[in-house]
Amino acid sequence: MELIDIGSNLTHASFSEDRADVIARAALAGVTRQIITGADLASSSAALAIAAANPSRLWSTAGVHPHHAASFDPACRDDLLELLEHPRVVAVGECGLDYFRNFSPPAAQRAAFIAQLEIAVTVAKPVFLHQRDSHEDFKAILKDFRAGLVGGVAHCFTGDSGQLEDYLALDLCIGITGWVCDERRGAHLREAVPRIPADRMMLETDAPYLLPRDLLPRPKSRRNEPQYLPHIARAVAGIRNEPWESVAASSTQTAIKLFGLV
What we know:
262 residues, alpha/beta, TIM Barrel, 8-stranded parallel sheet, 40% helix
């Protein structure tokens, strides 16, 4: 059964010594394709380089995460547009708003988000979206651009049913991670997951982050890897009371359709 990890951070330093092995382990586990997340210009360029070296398995995104929004300027915009010309770069982002940490001022976050939505409309590629503690502003900005976007995914969705309904109303896909496996803080998400239409749900690890809390045996490094995506798929299937093979098949087809994977 094939799975696609729509959000792995293979540019992270924790993968620098064994990245090829990580990709191979994922493939052996059935995670045959991955989309590598770009979070700023440097990681977006690195993600493309990794994807280009693995053309049968990897694609990437290019964008500026809200943490780095203060660095977004006209030159950054031009560099992103250049990266997005490459066929292996399949989405704009990770972009959005994050008021939880405010590593960049909220006004700078909003400006960078709007600029990247404009880029997504121009290049006709979907958006890979981040939102934390900023739902109302995020929703309002996205609503203004939604008609011009070819699509998008609420990456690493951890919200409640109300937020889910807002995103579904905006015709977004929903990315589910191992957060759903955390009994301490995943309750709202587990309530929302059965409400996601099968053709709007995709799976992701967000590796090396968000190691599923119920994974046994737990790796000594506590590093999440794409090879653990089947564990997340089975957890989601249990919550939805569906065969895990159905969840795997629908999430794979949804990813292929949204990102235009070939």
